[in-house]
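Hello again, I could really use a second opinion on something today. My current little project is about how a certain protein chain folds up. You're getting the sequence in one-letter code plus the fold written as tokens. Here's the protein in full, and shout if anything looks odd to you:
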Amino acid sequence: MQERKVIVIKIGSNVLTQENGLPDLIRIKKLVLQIQNLMSQGKKVVLVSSGAVAFGRQAIPLPEKLNPVFKKQIWASTGQIRLINEYQQRFEKQGIQIAQILVTKEDFRDRKHFLNMKNCVQALLAQGILPIINENDTVTITELMFTDNDELAGLTAAMIDADTLILLTNVDGIYTGNPTDPASKLIEKVSSSMPEISKYISASKSSFGRGGMLTKYAMAKKSADLGIQVYIANGKRDNILEEFAEGKIKCTQFEAKKSTHSTKKWLAHGASYYKGELTVNAGAKASLTSEVIRSLLPIGISSLEGEFSKGDILLIKDENGNKIGLGRAEYNSKLAQERLGLKNQKALIHYDYLYLFDHE
């Protein structure tokens, strides 16, 4: 197995809570010890942890009739303190300092925010500090939310060029049927050449998490396609991270393709974060999708929508509205509008900063 040096570990809410909905402090203690063991082996670890709402729900009873959004905000904001305090006390006993980073989708959408966040995480890792990342549920309302923390973990892994992403849930991985059915078998390896396996996956969601196994599969597949080794494993198993370190882990492992440039990893996750839309003509589409990838010039752009700055993500569509790919803007929307359809202009998207969708 290839040496793993930078690991993003996502711990789901269903791992950190007991059946009665109370936080599972014994599980947290065991996972902290295992993470400390990985770090003592020289691994750089970033933790994406759910669980704030469960900690808040335990501590603060709220009226049944209260607006569900307010409930979530109250439990998330109060529970986050309790969750991070639990981690801080546990890791400090192991001689590890932690840092808390709360993020929203906007932090990934805006290039400056994205780079500030990336630099912060890398600076913490360089000092041996463990970053613990969670969504800022207090300020994010439905349309701005991540699908779940699997999406956040995949984005984080892409952002910091991690070689490994471990998604800890309450089952051993993806099965050929419902995991509770004795006839179902664990799919231990998903290679890039395998046929689509999402038909096996139960769409049901856990009682505390937002996403189900289907979103885990989609995020794992995308991350693996970008060159990140992904494991979906059972965080309820006592020594799951030790088994990972020893190469004996029972889980679903996604085989990584050749690693992609870090900017393209950011772009690949940009389908939800783009700032502007470009419609290209048939000639530009043929040029972009040919074997020799070329930059996108203003002469090939029919129209553009949205306000964007240099460095923002743009969605590229053809004249039938089909999505072709994503790119990073080389200049702002005002300049782009002025140069629209003109010859001899600087490329709006350089081919080094272009990500094309496979299915187009």
